[in-house]
Amino acid sequence: MVRGIQHPTKGTDMGALWHPFSDMAAVERDGELVLARGEGAYVFDESGRRYLDATAGLWYANVGHGRTELAEAAARQMSTLAAYSNFGDNATRPTNDLAERLAGIAPVAGSRVFFTSGGSDSVETAAKLARRYWVEVGRPEKTVMVGRQKAYHGMHYAGTALAGIPGNREGYGELGPRTETVEWDSADALRAAFEEVGPDRVAAFFCEPVIGAGGVYAPPEGYLTEVRKACTEYDVLFVADEVVTGYGRIGGSWFASTRYGLEPDMVTTAKGLTSGYLPMGAVLVAPRVAEPFFREPGTWLRHGYTYSGHATAAAVALANLDIVEREGLLDEAARLEATLAAELAALADHELVAEVRAGTGAVAAVQLADATLAPRAVLALRGLGVATRAVGAGALQVSPAFVMTDEQVADLAAAFGEALDSLQ
Ligand code: PLP
């Protein structure tokens, strides 16, 4: 690791690119950092500078960067048949194989798999499917969706409305379906919302088992079991948004739902499905919700995407899951749970740190006492060769590739300490 903060030279020849979630006037003024290459837990910019990737991209590069095996899987499929739509009775072999594979690891046995192009698509699919389900079973008045404060459910209309990050909703006016937001950590608040809206009107409750982009918050003890129970009692569909937590991020099992003993009615996923090598998502739909659409010809879900089940993305997903299995990466994520908690713990005593949230899977956050310091902390870390970003209200995200070693985690923690010292 490079010692001492050395700010990279940033390029200013940006041209037409509009960066997502970015203050473009500031990016144009200050320049952008162009990343060129990745290898394991590291990425490299165009000048060759190396960064320890604390976040695995946007929580997706679970198997690490630069896996030629995945590039080869893509090349093989792409040069055979890159993609063919799965609309109607069309299918491709990798898509079928992947669906089988996901059904085999889904938290609920017998799940059906609906493919999407990413996490926001998965959430939108689950939201629409929840409503369609209630129509199919003769309860069309069940339309209201409930989400939690701090929650992030992607950026399509339903997900933006459902999420509990107020800034992301501002300036868009009325957003899609009626949604209610409840406290993130209270099952009683959820029950109260069901009562208030009227259980006959609530379609679904969306829940990240571990809150990610809202700042990395593990569920309070017993919370998930309680909210699952409340959904069963009130006959509300329980949707686990596992776009971040799925495919091993929570350690030890493929899904956080399995770790917490939940049986979701739907599981929304993306990211770790392909480790981000190609964009792809999937909704795992429990038999209860899928059944009305498989019962008899004539009832079908008029919903889907051009790239639902994209053959090359599916081939990459299969190869990615092979790597996770072969290299025991679910266990490696569990190892990281312990290492992150141990290595980051000391930062809690730092004057600028309010709290360290770690100890639930391969995710953690260093919460700054003063949220306005976060952008400077991110820059200082970059200057020390660590790539991270701010999430929630001034928390620094840590969600490494499962291949990050304990030594690299120690390097990362040391850099966090040094970066924070530089801000004092
Ligand atoms: N749901 C959760 C929990 C997420 O964290 C994200 C993205 O970070 C999404 C949905 C949206 O995924 P995407 O950005 O792939 O559309």
UniProtKB/TrEMBL annotation:
InterPro entries: Aminotrans_3 (IPR005814), Aminotrans_3_PPA_site (IPR049704), PyrdxlP-dep_Trfase (IPR015424), PyrdxlP-dep_Trfase_major (IPR015421), PyrdxlP-dep_Trfase_small (IPR015422)
Name the record gives this protein: Aspartate aminotransferase family protein
Keyword Transferase part of the UniProt annotation: yes
Keywords: Aminotransferase, Pyridoxal phosphate, Transferase
Family of the protein in this entry: Belongs to the class-III pyridoxal-phosphate-dependent aminotransferase family.
UniProt GO MF annotations: transaminase activity
Record has Transferase as a keyword: yes
CDD domains referenced in this protein's UniProt entry, alphabetically: OAT_like
Organism of this sequence: Georgenia daeguensis
Top-rank lineage group of the source organism: Bacteria
